[in-house]
Amino acid sequence: VTWNTNELFIVSQLNSVLSFLAVFVQMFLAALSFVYFAKALSGSYMKSTITQLERRFDIPSYLIGIIDGSFEIGNLLVIAFVSYFGAKLHRPKIIAVGCLLMSFGTFLIAMPHFLIGSYKIETSVRPSVNSSNTLPPCSSGSTVAGCERDSSVSMWIYVFLGNVLRGIGETPVQPLGISYIDDYAQSENAALYIGCVQTISVIGPVFGYLLGSLCAKIYVDIGQVDMETVTITPGDARWVGAWWLGYIIAGAITLMSAIPFWFLPKSLPMPLDKHDTSCTPEQARFIKDSPKMEHKFRQEEPANLHQMAKDFVPALKSLLGNPVYILYLCVTIIQFNSLIGMVTYKPKYIEQHYGQSASKANFLMGMINIPAVALGMFTGGVAMKKYKLGIMGAAKFAFGTSLLGYFLSLFFLAMGCENSKVAGITVSYTGVESLSYQERSLFSDCNLGCLCSRREWDPVCGENGISYVSPCLAGCTSSTGSVFGNCRCLALADAQPGNLTATPGQCPRRDSCDKIFPYFLALSVLSSFIISLGGTPGFVLLVRRITHSHTLTGIPAPIYFGAIIDSTCLKWGYKTCGGRGACRIYNTSAYRIVYLGLTLGLRTVSFFLCILGFAILKRHIKQEEKSALTNGSAELEALKKEESNSIHCEQFILALDRNPDRETHL
């Protein structure tokens, strides 16, 4: 084949454009991966501080659910506008602005720590006046403390508003970032690139939970109080870690992630596999923003905001009138409800059900569970590229892995632990198992002579292996250092009472629970890996068919999950001036049933909808293929006319910019 000078020049220019395109796509991919890492780190750190925030602000789980769901409220406020208008504007710079908002919101969440006073540990042991000794736990004198209004009552509002701002800032990252890659990456590499981004976004939670584990070990008022005066340990239900420290670190990382996007171009040359075959290479659109490219065949038209607004409502009506979209919207809403509710309260479930500290629960989530998810999502992306799965193939693969993971998750229901033995709550003072939600059951003949408060939570562990709500309710009349003596209530549960002594803190869990916990972790890793195998194919399906329905799902899930978990609480803490605070101990069996049952129940409903969805999607794809075949025949006839070739190409290029399939809708 003989090449003339003009053709050689065109080939040379085309090769340089392709190299230029690959470099910028990879730069954008790296920047987007860093943003995904930063936002995932912040989001997972929020999940890891659930119990810390409950205890610090003395609020129940349903209110924590509202705070956690406020992120999706921020999403929902702007998602429709960002997705529709953002795709027509400078996408990298819009993402940069979003990163700045996320950073500011994260700093706002940490602000209450610097505005409120020191954390006051709830305890029934008070120092005596003008003495270094303490009053006897069981005292016949009045020990009613004065009411001091706590300034932290409404400070959780700052956390709520900061999380809303995080949600607003995060909104443009996913639709604009993924659509940018989908537009300018080679079609064969798009799925792999998306898999890489999703994998990085799952690595973020590893560091988020590890950061949560580290901060949970550090006392909340570190540097402000003498640590020798802190008598509780990280395993105590009253312990609050340095939750604010992690938000400052996460905010700084998010702020840095905004920098690269200010220097990335608005658009890139379209890859050859996304050009019309009737166009010659030199007619392809070149990048506008780069000063290195001298050949600009066409200037991009400025964004017409009035026309965008005019087209927005008809486009939205068309989208909501699509039965395929509506059905998959329902499926993904239910699936994400199950996923978000489960992930939000999983560290707390590990704490309450298996008796682990918040620090250890977060560490296990970060080092064991999350890596399995990352490996599964990356493996799913590689499998999709290797086997070249289409829309139906991706849907079937995601459904199959989710169904297998569902069956494995059923075994969690059998991995239960018994309730901790707490006198007056889970067992009677004589040691007989008897659940009670009534506070009057805390009193017995052995402590009636003491003026004990039924509202305080200052547990002690008796020599008989039973925990008592406070030294006073255990009937202890003396204390030496950290040991309480002459605890009369211990004798009721022991036929041959020995030393009637008790030590601070709850009694440890039984050995049988410690033996079950490793099996729980192993099954959790396996099920997470299998379910996440379908993560990337499912995500590609969402991007290409039904984008961003998950913003509707994250709002209610943590709220009603939290409310149902609250219904299993056996002993509530109380604020200084009255009012219910955070839960201190749960009914372990009921917690397991409602938490796992709700998670699995939602997924069961989604599977039935998926079966119907497959039938509709299959019919929809057949109609599209038939329509594409008809349109292809018409174009072939038009190409036979040499005069219309260039006109057709120009129309194609213009159509690329207006093609609604390239825009990210709701």
TrEMBL record:
Single GO biological process annotation from the record: monoatomic ion transport
Pfam family membership, one: Kazal_2
Presence of the UniProt keyword Membrane in the record: yes
Transmembrane intervals: 17-38, 59-82, 94-116, 190-211, 244-264, 325-343, 363-383, 395-415, 516-543, 555-574, 594-617
Alphabetical UniProt keywords: Cell membrane, Disulfide bond, Ion transport, Membrane, Transmembrane, Transmembrane helix, Transport
Database matches in InterPro entries: Kazal_dom, Kazal_dom_sf, MFS_trans_sf, OATP
Cellular localisation: Cell membrane
Entry keyword annotation includes S-adenosyl-L-methionine: no
Annotated membrane topology: Multi-pass membrane protein
MF terms in GO: sodium-independent organic anion transmembrane transporter activity
Range of residues in the leader sequence: none
Domain of life: Eukaryota
Stated family: Belongs to the organo anion transporter (TC 2.A.60) family.
NCBIfam families linked to this entry: oat
Identification of the protein by name: Solute carrier organic anion transporter family member
Species name: Sphaeramia orbicularis (orbiculate cardinalfish)
